[in-house]
Each structure stands twice: as structure tokens, then as C-alpha cells.
């Protein structure tokens, strides 16, 4: 990895927006220590500015006026996140105060950091490869414990290690091919086709295919699933949402049409982020506002990973139930009979029979009965009976998956070329292509525009 070329000093607020007990200004670059000495007045001067040691003191403006009482730390590169000199001011967490401090830092020679620029510098300095840099944003954006675990494994380099093992095998094959190209008279002796084929199958394609299989589960853990609660008015959609959230998020009344827009909330089911959407009930006669809500409900149902089709078990199915079910029948869905506590057993049996062999769940959202079984059914409907098992390993994200599939295609091309007796020149081209695709994942051959797009997703200050 090439050494970092930019030596200008950058700064940003590193803590989230809003008022808090503490707010941190992060500074990185050659001018960091000079800015610290210009603005910070340590309480014990003899102990100040020792690397990686917090010092208590005051932060002052150019006129020497005290702006805040703070803790400051100087971290000498390369033993830092960016491998540059880094300074942090730990201030009181007032947004106005932090902006004032940041302006003083800018006036002292730093410039505003771009989104993700601290992590980008860590990547360019070789402290992180690209998969680890991406893990930082995945860790920040994780919505469940399993998402955090997945990001931490990637940050620790587990995916990099698996890819590096494959990369070493490809380099070994390419080295043999290049020697055979340089000594064509000895090509037959140098090139053991059976050995290379075995190496390709066992040490390269098998690990690649295993990683590719993990990607779908990783996507679910990272991004979650969208589950829409649908049904005609007053079947208990909002009651079910409140029960799943364990809070009164949606207004519940006996009046049909209370929910006039979609309500979206997040829960976790077995470590999977589930984005719940409560929708306006679909009915024939409604005002303009309610009609807009119903149209939004239809769009959400079309885009959902799973629809929970709710019916009222205390009454017979209506024509509106039938019309709405016809709309979602071809989509992934579960039929859920609500108000089971008020339903006649014969009525429940008739509803179950109406939907045939399909699994039908009976619950009472109001009494919180059958809800755990419903959660498990949601999980299995999207994740399958085996569930998502890959935490403990590192699952590729979508960008990785595309590159892995291209690598696998190139390796299969190399395999086919070997079987057909192709020249070493052609074999080397296929092997180099596979290496380049792998290099895209860890950042060795990643185009600049892709790098810019990746780091643009970061917040400023990370």
C-alpha cells in the first residue's frame, strides 16, 4: 500500500449531532500538534503533550479568552487511526460550543474534513484494507447485535484473511504459468495440469463459492427485511404493530380508517433487523387523504419482503378481504387471523379452510397471544428453516459479491482453458483477471471513483 501523500491537516466534530455530556473535535495531519499548542492551556504544563496521554486544561481563543474546560490528547503517528499525528479535544457537548471550537481549529490551520476522510487516510496509509474500512461504516450503521458482530469480524480482518488465502493460491498458479511462458521449451515439464486443476477446485473455487453463499445471509443481517402489515380497516393492524414494538406507537380506536398513512418502525427478530410497516386499511369509500395513504400502502406491499395479511377472526371474511388478498396472493405472505380471543372456534376453522393448505396463524394482538409464534414464522418465511447462520464468519457485502462472482467466472475460465490445452499466455490472462477482481475487494486495484463512492457514505468525523 502506497504511503499517504496528503499532509494537510483536517478536523471535524467526531461525536453525533445534538446535545450530550461530551463532544469530541478530531484533528489529523502534520499541523495537529501545533494547533494543540496554540489553543490548549494545560493545567500541568510539565505533563502536557505526551503522546497518548489525556491532559486537563482550558481551550482558549486567539485573544486568550477561555472557551471551555476540556481534556486534550495528542497521539503521535504512526500509532494512530490515520497513522498521522492526531489530536482530540474532549469538550462539553453543546453543539454551539463545538462549532465555536471547530472554527478556532480551522482558523489555526486545519481545513474541514470530507465525509469519511479520517478512515480514507487510514486506508491509504495501509492501516486498513478496503474491506476493513467498509466495516467501519457497517459498524456505525448496524441495527442489531448480529449486525454489530458481523461488522466487527470484518473490521478484525476475517474476510481479508480468507481472500488473502485465495489470492496467494492464484499468485502461485500465475507464477508457474509465467515461468512456463519464459521457458517454452520446458513448458510440459513445468506445467502440471492436474495439480493446477486440483488447486483451482479445492483451494480457490471452493472458498470463493462458500463466500458467495454467505452473501445473501449477510445482506439480511446488514439491511434487514421489510414486513408490511396489511388488511382492511379495523382488523387490528395498528394493535399488532404496537404489540410487536411493545409500545403504543400507532393510534388504536374502534373507528375504521384511523391509520391514514404508513407508520414504519424497527424491531429485531433473532438478530435480524425487521422494518415493520403499518399501512392504511384498504376500503372502497374514503376521502382524498385516506386514498393517498392506501396508495402508499399498495406500493409498500409491492416492495415488501413479506406481507402479513391480517383478517378479523371474530367476523366472517368480507369481499374487501377477498379483494385485498387477491392483490397480495402472488407475493410472499403469511395469513394471520387476529382477535382469536373473540373468535368462535368454528369461525376460525372456516377461515383456515378458506385459505387451504397455506399456513394460517391465529393471534390476539390485544392479548399478546401467538405473537412469538408469529415472529418465528416471519423469520422462517424470509430466512428459511435453517435461518441465517453466518455470524462467526464474515459475509461479503454486495460490492464484494459482484467481485467474487467475477473472480469465480475467471477461475472457471482458467479451468476450462486448462482442460482444452490452451497456451500458457491465455491461462495467465485468466489468472491475472481473477487476481484483479480479488484486488478490487481489498482495495489493491479498486478504481478511484469506486473509492470515492465508498467513503462518501461515511459521516463527517469518521
What does the largest sheet look like?
Answer: 7 strands, mixed
Number of helices: 16
Q: How many β-strands, per DSSP?
A: 13
Instruction: Report the span from N to C terminus.
Output: 21 Å
Strand order of the largest sheet: 3-4-5-6-2-1-7
- Please tell me what the overall shape is: flat
Radius of gyration: 29 Å
Following the backbone from N to C, one meets helices and strands in this order, namely EEHEEEEHEHHHHHHEHEEHEHEHEHHHH
| Structural class computed from helices and strand pairing | alpha/beta
Strand percentage lies at 15-25%
Low-confidence runs of at least 5 consecutive residues:
1-5, 255-260
Average residue pLDDT? 85
Helix content: 40-55%
What would your notes on this structure say?
With 462 residues, this protein is an alpha/beta fold. α8 packs antiparallel against α14 and α14 runs antiparallel to α15. A seven-stranded mixed sheet has the order 3-4-5-6-2-1-7, covered by helices on one side. Mean pLDDT is 85; it is low at 1-5 and 255-260. It contains 16 helices and 13 strands.
List keywords for this structure.
17% strand; 462 residues; six-stranded mixed beta sheet; alpha/beta; single chain; flat; disordered N terminus
Amino acid at each position: 500500500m502506497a504511503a499517504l501523500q496528503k499532509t494537510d491537516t483536517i478536523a471535524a466534530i467526531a461525536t453525533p449531532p445534538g446535545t450530550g455530556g461530551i463532544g469530541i473535535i478530531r484533528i489529523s495531519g502534520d499541523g495537529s500538534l501545533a494547533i494543540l499548542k496554540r489553543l490548549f492551556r494545560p493545567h500541568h504544563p510539565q505533563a502536557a503533550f505526551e503522546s497518548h496521554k489525556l491532559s486537563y486544561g482550558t481551550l482558549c481563543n486567539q485573544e486568550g479568552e477561555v472557551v471551555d474546560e476540556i481534556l486534550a490528547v495528542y497521539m503521535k503517528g504512526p500509532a494512530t487511526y490515520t497513522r498521522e499525528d492526531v489530536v482530540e479535544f474532549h469538550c462539553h457537548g453543546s453543539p454551539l460550543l463545538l462549532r465555536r471550537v471547530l472554527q478556532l481549529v480551522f482558523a489555526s490551520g486545519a481545513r474541514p474534513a470530507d465525509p469519511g476522510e479520517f478512515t480514507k487516510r487510514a486506508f491509504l496509509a495501509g492501516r486498513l484494507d478496503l474491506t476493513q474500512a467498509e466495516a467501519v461504516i457497517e459498524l456505525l450503521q448496524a441495527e442489531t447485535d448480529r449486525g454489530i458482530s458481523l461488522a466487527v469480524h470484518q473490521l478484525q480482518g476475517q474476510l481479508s484473511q480468507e481472500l488473502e488465502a485465495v489470492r496467494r493460491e492464484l499468485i502461485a498458479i500465475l507464477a508457474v504459468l509465467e515461468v512456463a511462458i519464459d521457458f517454452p521449451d520446458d513448458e510440459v515439464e513445468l506445467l502440471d495440469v492436474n495439480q493446477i486443476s486440483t488447486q483451482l477446485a479445492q483451494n480457490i473455487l471452493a472458498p470463493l463459492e462458500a463466500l458467495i453463499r454467505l452473501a445473501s445471509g449477510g445482506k439480511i443481517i446488514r439491511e434487514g427485511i421489510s414486513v408490511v402489515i396489511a388488511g382492511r380497516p379495523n382488523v387490528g393492524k395498528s394493535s399488532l404493530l404496537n404489540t410487536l414494538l411493545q409500545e403504543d406507537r400507532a393510534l388504536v380506536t374502534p373507528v375504521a380508517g384511523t391509520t391514514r398513512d404508513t407508520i414504519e418502525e424497527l424491531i429485531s427478530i433473532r438478530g435480524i433487523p425487521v422494518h415493520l410497516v403499518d399501512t392504511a386499511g384498504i376500503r372502497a369509500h374514503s376521502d382524498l387523504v385516506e386514498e393517498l395513504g392506501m396508495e402508499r400502502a399498495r406500493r409498500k406491499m409491492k416492495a415488501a419482503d413479506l406481507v402479513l395479511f391480517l383478517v378479523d377472526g371474530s367476523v366472517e371474511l368480507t369481499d374487501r378481504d377477498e379483494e385485498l388478498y387477491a392483490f397480495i396472493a402472488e407475493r410472499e405472505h403469511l395469513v394471520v387471523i387476529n382477535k382469536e380471543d373473540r373468535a368462535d372456534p368454528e369461525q376460525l376453522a372456516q377461515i383456515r379452510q378458506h385459505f387451504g393448505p397455506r399456513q394460517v396463524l391465529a393471534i390476539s394482538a390485544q392479548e399478546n397471544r401467538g405473537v412469538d409464534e408469529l415472529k418465528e414464522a416471519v423469520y422462517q418465511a424470509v430466512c428459511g428453516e435453517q435461518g441465517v447462520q453466518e455470524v462467526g464468519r464474515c459475509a461479503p457485502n454486495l460490492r464484494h459479491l459482484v467481485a467474487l462472482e467475477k473472480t469465480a467466472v475467471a477461475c472457471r475460465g482458467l479451468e476450462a482453458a486448462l482442460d482444452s490445452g490452451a497456451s500458457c499466455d491465455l491461462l495467465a490472462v485468466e489468472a491475472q483477471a481473477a487476481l484483479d477482481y480479488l484486488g478490487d475487494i481489498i482495495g489493491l486495484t479498486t478504481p478511484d471513483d469506486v473509492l470515492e463512492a465508498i467513503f462518501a457514505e461515511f459521516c463527517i468525523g469518521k
